[in-house]
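Long-time lurker. I teach an intro course on protein structure, and each term I like to show students one example going from raw sequence to a predicted 3D structure in token notation. This year I'd like something fresh instead of my usual example. Would anyone be willing to generate the tokens for the chain below so I can use it in lecture? Attribution to the forum is fine with me.
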Amino acid sequence: MKKRYDVITFGSATRDVYLQSEKFRGVADKKAKTRKVIRLALGAKYDIPIVYFETGGGGTNTAVGFARLGFKTAVVTRIGANDARGKILLHTLQENGVDTRFVVHDKKDMTAYSVLLRSPKGERTILVHRGASSRFTDAGIQWTKLKKTKWFYVSSLGGNLPLMKKLVHFAAKHHISVAVNPGRAELDKGYRALAPVLKGATVVLLNREEAARLTGIPFEQERAMFKKLAIGLPGMVVVTDGPRGALVADNTYRYKGKPHTITVHDTTGAGDSFGMGFVAGYMHKNDIAYALQTGIASSESVIQKIGAKNGLLTHFPKKDPREVTITSFPN
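-- Reply from a regular --
Happy to contribute to a lecture. Here you go:
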């Protein structure tokens, strides 16, 4: 069967507004999860000198990323049927060459919306209204047309694990490769519940915190955590660790890539850009080391801009094998 698409992405679509002010500086607080808080007086009014309007969401961020690198791309996501922010998202996708015929227009909920309170140093707190993205169901999905692709890229589906399992099963039946980047809503269901999805994936993408929560191994025990995941799963396992880089295993080799020293402006979309870049690089050259390098290059480019899409690559990087260390697995 001739494939119509190179990749179809699945996940959320959001309208984002960034509010930047000196008032949003972090203040130390040992009781807070991140040890910092933003303190604003109840009932007060604050001037916001800098405002950015962007679009986000795992489904649309990755779709735009693949399309900019030249892949025939479609997206399955949910937006409000009649709201302005949904129309803006559609326009953003279409102007980047993403096929939007599979976008579901929800008549009950509005398009997801995020408010990002950003300090001058780039620290941020995110307030999220998940809207239509919180009700990700298979209603409206055109299943018979989804088989005309080479890859699925599946990010968070608002905790709808049965749908994620259905997508992986559908992909196996129709010889479609699958990359899975589960979100908190899926990870909170635990490894046993998520195992059928992870074991059916060609590529599993997690960050170090997510890997620790999924395996039950302390965050500090990176090697044990990574080894448990990679041995237990048949596909490629990719674990990112912010400025420390990323690890990949394919049960034969272990790959480690380190990022460059750069100025970070906004980490929103860093995970989406890395995951998309890794899969795009692998699709492009069928080479894990190159895929890792592409993922890092993609993430580095995005975090130097404001917004999850502005820094997405428009061409593939040249390969420099010195940037990736390859050893036998599980060493």
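Some talking points for your students: Residues 270-285 form the longest helix (16 residues). The longest strand covers residues 14-20.
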